[in-house]
Amino acid sequence: MTDTVSFGYEDVSPEEKTRRVGGVFASVASKYDVMNDAMSGGLHRVWKDVFVRRVKPRAGEAILDMAGGTGDIAFRMEKSGAAITVADINPAMLEVGIERAAKRGIDGLVWSEANAETLQWPDRFFDAYTIAFGIRNVTDIPKALREAHRVLKRGGRFFCLEFSTTLWPGFGDVYDAYSHHVVPKVGQAIAGDAESYRYLIESIRRFPSMERFKEMIGEAGFVQTKVEPMLGGLVAIHSGWKI
Predict the structure, then answer these.
(1) Contact at 8 Å (CB) between 46 and 25?
(2) Domains in the chain, number
(3) Residue 217, domain CATH
(4) Which of 236, 205, 241 is nearest to 51 (CA)?
(5) Quick check: 52 and 44 in contact, CB under 8 A?
(6) Digitized pLDDT (tens) for each residue of the chain, 243 residues in all
(7) Domain extent at residue 58
């Protein structure tokens, strides 16, 4: 790693980013899903549905849903009969997910506090690894990708849903204006926290391009890497296989 990493538009030490990202998600955990609806106009639900269809979870598989604290992806996958472990570095996010699962009568998920950069599971343990809107908040992304590769079985698949940069002419400018000027105000109104949502928007702008992130997945050891842009790349599904 370099001596500094990005925290939004700031460059900070890796330790500082880890600490500050933890603070962001501890602050917004209770309102996280409400804010997702407000920021995306409900589109995040559609994107997650598409994502899970691409993953194709199957009965009997072991799947790690990393950074999945509030359960949105796991709830969609558990209907398949797969054995799903929901992992998140932030206990506040896990608490929200556990409460949501209880309200839905879902009791078959495993919830685990885990750091994506230093996973506690052994080599070749999972059939699939999913991460939705979480990878950009990881301090050392290449290390997290290598860990994902390590814990997957041979033939295992990696799927990542993340914001990127739209390539549609004009749309990117409109979204930039909306996200930088409107989203923090919505965050203040709904969650009482404008600064955390300002960081979340800025972190999208600092995230690698779709093609560069695809290369990073390959550099971690995955093959047959692909990227599927949505809304011109505002959001993208990246995938790869371990052989």
Answers:
(1) no
(2) 1
(3) 3.40.50.150
(4) 236
(5) no
(6) 557 777 667 777 888 878 877 777 666 677 777 777 766 778 889 999 999 999 999 999 999 999 998 899 999 999 999 999 999 999 998 999 999 999 999 999 999 999 999 999 999 999 999 999 999 889 899 999 999 999 999 999 999 999 887 777 777 677 777 666 777 787 787 767 777 777 777 777 788 999 999 999 999 999 999 999 998 888 999 999 999
(7) 5-241
